[in-house]
């Protein structure tokens, strides 16, 4: 009788955990509307995690890579890292009286961003180097931490870390719950992201791949530091993304998500692996809740990658119809 | 009565698991002789994993970095990767008739390694580029896999992957069992190590940091590949090691192990973090079981780092007295 009672209790428990497992699976993407995009994600994860299936992928190979700007958080009206640089120019201006008459800084300090950027890529690089180099890695980390803790987005008035997409947070968590290792592979600065990605996305520093400037090991008063030099090291964008993935991860992703032409090669690289793969794009179609832009946008242009996604049947998320909620604060 | 019986069973179980936990702790480094080196490792791990202690380190920050050549596997009579390159020169020679008269290849093909290396660093770089570049990353991976599966060490006649140090394998496993993430940070080629480090050390590709040549994303007959270019990208040695650690891991190690002056800056960088840290060096003192070399060796010179270790009280492993066994095959 005792044995029977135990058996009964066990069956009940097993039943309950089955119910809760199913409930969890149904609930793990609550901010996604039912539709092709959500279905393609759920079905991919089911396929590659089902032991014994032909599509099964061992845990060690469950590598998922995500672009950041426009894929995990917003990128309008300008990349947030560029807004950071503009804020830094203002903070640093008193130490640089020469900026009053020197472009691109002179225009910037008058609030004329367009004028400053008339100098093209050279102007951009000058702004980045003036604000990102000439300090130790620890000093830069502190600057980023302080900025990200307080700076507000010009349109929403929200902290930048509040402008992450709730459906993508759920997707990352869903993948991790299914044995995936999630990586950021972004054109943004690697050291600009690392101070906050663990808290915001649960992605630790060693799983962040990004653009970088060179650093140099030095002893300063006998203390070892890494100085940030005004010299480009690596641009993790476009054809650079597979290079960065190979350099940092050393394994081809089975799952990759981006939102712009800068992600095309990452998706191609992912697709070219054997077996079942997932390639996804966020299409910004929602001018009311976020922004609507694609083929002609200066920031986050999505043109060639959209054509290739449509031709090859990759998942294209229509933000307006596929996402129940865009931001958690809605 | 039933409740008492359950209580008794639980106490017994708790007692048993306590016993086995202690037994495990005593046994986790069986190839290490009792002594200062072993004690320093055990006591460090106890300190940083004890919750509530002032020295406690959260799991996310338990980063341990290991040099490879001379620290995890042997490096005499020459770095194994260089022996790989020499083997490759022989294999590739029929496709390069010009090598018969062109140095450093002409000397190499006559078995005159010393003559080939008379050309200094330039000769080395030429040999590396001729054997490591000009193919895709996948092709190179296959070449490395094939070589490592069959090539034998000139002195021991063993596979190179058998020439890993048994005490260091136990140390890596002990750290991992205590929540550490273990990384390789080696002057060796990152793509030369990745094909076998997971199997041999349990260290996956994304936790391998090393030297590299540049790669380039290309579409070859519509298929994306990464071509390996004959151009240096990064030398992960000496002052390069903290740079590589920062670039790949983005977090300062709390534990670092090396064996030569090329590891000095990695140990300095580790030591300069706050709180308790572990810095270790393997000192090759055992000419009978392995090799004995230090201050004047061309390969793995240990001179300045030995002085600094002694001055600062870092752990120096005396291979002869601290290791019960060097290789598993003994």
From the structure above, extract its key features:
330 residues, homodimer, globular, alpha/beta
Strands of chain A, count: 7
Helix proportion range of chain A: 40-55%
Strand count, sense and barrel status of the largest sheet of chain A are: 7 strands, mixed
Given the structure, what is the number of helices of chain A? 13
Strand order of the largest sheet of chain A: 4-3-2-1-5-6-7
Give me the Rg of chain A, rounded: 23 Å
From N to C, what is the helix and strand string of chain A? HHEHHHHHHEHEEHEHEHEH
Strand content of chain A: 15-25%
Return residue spans of chain A where pLDDT drops below 50 for at least 5 consecutive residues.
Answer: 6-25
Cα distance, first to last residue of chain A?
A: 56 Å
**So what's the oligomer here?**
homodimer
Shape field of chain A: globular
Average pLDDT of chain A, to the nearest integer? 93
How would you portray this structure in words?
With 330 residues, the first copy, chain A, is α/β, with parallel strands linked by helices. Helix content of chain A is 44%, strand content 16%. The first copy, chain A, is built from 13 helices and 7 strands. Chain A has helices spanning 2-27, 36-49, 80-92, 105-109, 113-117, 120-132, 137-150, 166-177, 190-201, 240-248, 264-271, 304-312, 319-322, and strands spanning 63-66, 181-189, 208-220, 223-234, 255-258, 278-283, 315-318. Chain A has a 7-stranded mixed β-sheet with strand order 4-3-2-1-5-6-7, with helices on both faces. In chain A, α9 (190-201) links the parallel β2 (181-189) and β3 (208-220). In chain A, α3 crosses α6 and α7 (137-150) packs across α9. Chain A is globular, with a radius of gyration of 23 Å. The relative contact order of chain A is 0.15.
